[in-house]
Write a structure and sequence with these properties.
Elements: H1 2-29, E1 33-44, H2 61-66, E2 77-81, E3 88-89, E4 92-93, E5 107-111, E6 113-118, H3 126-131, E7 133-137, E8 142-148, E9 155-161, E10 181-185, E11 188-192, E12 200-205, E13 212-217, E14 228-236, H4 245-264
Parallel strand pairs: 1-2
Antiparallel strand pairs: 1-14, 3-6, 4-5, 5-8, 6-7, 8-13, 9-12, 9-14, 10-11, 10-13
């Protein structure tokens, strides 16, 4: 009876210890995660109304406040098109670089007539450097777009920029918040108003091809000024994470405990 009880206790203790060890092993083998970030600024490729284009660099403070993934310094893709009144049909941009400057297969394309412009004041730092330049839709109130080359079925944070001003073009009534746009993105509808601090953060899942696509439209019948975007997603780093000292100590204690239990039950 004593031998049977001892064996039962040994089995129970061994099972508990093995579960504890399995948890420690899982922690040891879990891959580290890294944020992959793409930052895109839209603007003209030549002066518009005498105003030179600006290439934005660094951290955009509003995006950083909205999501910590955007808080580190980034390399930006400054994508340009002909300044209004010249428009490009179906422009596309490939080989975007990530926040570290590494080239990728990510790109963005538009179907429609697209131009570019900027507004005053021209500012080379802070939010204004992104938000006073923009792409606009010409001749119609809609265009379609596709961001391609992302991992399939992956959750992403998408931060959308609109101009930091709120007025119609000259000839229209003033003081109307009419320069924003609406974006459909893999079934979601995102409205982005124009004006200071009126950007938008959304969380989406890429489709089976690794795309985010939809329609860029201007429900108010304006230009639908689209200043740019940032997107971020997490991906496992190559290899396994380096175990922390506390995790290694936990694993060592598990092995020691297993040995002690075995000796006591002999």
């Amino acid at each position: 009876m004593t031998t049977s009880n001892s064996a039962g206790k040994w089995a129970a203790r061994t099972a508990s210890t093995l579960i504890f060890m399995a948890a420690a092993l899982a922690a040891l083998s879990a891959p580290a995660q890294a944020d992959i970030i793409y930052s895109v600024n839209f603007g003209p490729n030549a002066p518009f109304a005498g105003r030179a284009p600006v290439s934005f660099t660094g951290v955009e403070s509003q995006a950083a406040a909205a999501d910590s993934a955007f808080a580190a310094s980034h390399i930006w893709n400054n994508l340009t098109d002909a300044p209004d009144p010249t428009f490009t049909t179906n422009p596309s941009f490939s080989g975007l670089v990530d926040s570290t400057g590494a080239a990728s297969g990510v790109g963005i394309s538009f179907t429609g007539s697209i131009g570019a412009a900027n507004d005053v004041p021209i500012d080379s730092s802070g939010s204004n450097a992104v938000e006073n330049e923009y792409f606009l839709i010409g001749g119609t109130d809609t265009a379609s777009y596709a961001i391609t080359g992302l991992p399939a079925n992956t959750r992403v944070a998408l931060y959308l920029y609109a101009p930091n001003f709120t007025l119609y073009d000259s000839g229209y009534p003033t003081n109307k918040p009419s320069r924003g746009y609406q974006l459909t993105a893999n079934g979601s509808v995102i409205s982005v108003a124009s004006g200071p601090n009126d950007n938008a953060l959304a969380f989406l899942t890429t489709d089976a091809s690794g795309d985010i696509s939809g329609v860029w439209s201007t429900p108010l019948g304006n230009e639908g000024d689209f200043s740019g975007f940032q997107l971020a997603y997490s991906t496992p780093t190559s290899g396994s994470a380096v175990p922390e000292p506390a995790t290694l100590a936990l694993f060592a204690v598990s092995l020691t405990g297993l040995g002690l239990l075995r000796r006591r039950c002999r």
